[in-house]
Structures are given as structure tokens and as C-alpha cells.
């Protein structure tokens, strides 16, 4: 299991948070999603054998939010 942390531009409303969380939670391989409204960050735990951080960032981008950067921490096995 890996963790991706995406830095976004400022989120303007709580419904943005729910839209991002819902879209990412539907992706195969995603286990846990946390959207940090005030920090404009998204933390996603995902299975790197099923989906990549780039694909998850694309999901957020297609919703209309700019992903400034993505950091991935690969879990030690």
C-alpha cells in the first residue's frame, strides 16, 4: 500500500472536498481518502499494483482542480 499526497490550489467550498473524495474513493485500488480543506491537500492510500498516483492526480484534474504536485510514499513490505 502506498500513500499519495497531492497539493492543490485553494479549495473554495466544502462541496469541492466531497466531490474530490467521492471520485477518488470510486477508483479501483483506493483504500482511504482524506481531503484536508484548509491545507488544500488530498491524502490517498492506494494499491500501487492496481492504480498509480498519476492516474489519481488525473482524476482530480478532470474534476477541475489543479494538482500542483504529488508526493508518493511507498510502504515498506
> What's the gyration radius in Å?
11 Å
**Could you tell me how far the N terminus lies from the C terminus, measured between alpha carbons in angstroms?**
9 Å
Q: Total number of helical segments?
A: 2
Largest sheet properties: 4 strands, antiparallel
Q: Give the SSE order as H and E letters.
A: EHEEHE
Q: Quick one: overall form?
A: globular
Which percent range fits the helix content?
25-40%
How large is the share of residues in beta strands?
35-45%
What count of structural domains? 1
**What is the CATH C level class, in words?**
Alpha Beta
Q: Which residue ranges are poorly predicted, with pLDDT under 50 across at least 5 consecutive positions?
A: none
**Can you name the CATH architecture?**
2-Layer Sandwich
Organism: Furfurilactobacillus milii
Keywords: Metal-binding
Protein name: Cation transporter
Pfam families: HMA
Task: Walk me through what this model shows.
The chain is of the alpha+beta class and 77 residues long. The protein has a single domain (2-74), classed as Alpha-Beta Plaits (2-Layer Sandwich). Helix content is 29%, strand content 36%. It has two helices and four strands, in the order βαββαβ. The chain has a four-stranded antiparallel sheet, with helices on one face. β2 and β3 form a beta hairpin. The termini are close together. The mean pLDDT is 94. Keywords: Metal-binding. Pfam families: HMA. Residues 2-68 form the HMA domain.
Amino acid at each position: 500500500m502506498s500513500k499519495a499526497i497531492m497539493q492543490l490550489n485553494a479549495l473554495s467550498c466544502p462541496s469541492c472536498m466531497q466531490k474530490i473524495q467521492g471520485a477518488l474513493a470510486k477508483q479501483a485500488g483506493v483504500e482511504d481518502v482524506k481531503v484536508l480543506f484548509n491545507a488544500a491537500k488530498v491524502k490517498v492510500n492506494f494499491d500501487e499494483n492496481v492504480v498509480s498516483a498519476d492516474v489519481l492526480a488525473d482524476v482530480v484534474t478532470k474534476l477541475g482542480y489543479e494538482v500542483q504536485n504529488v508526493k508518493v510514499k511507498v510502504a515498506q513490505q
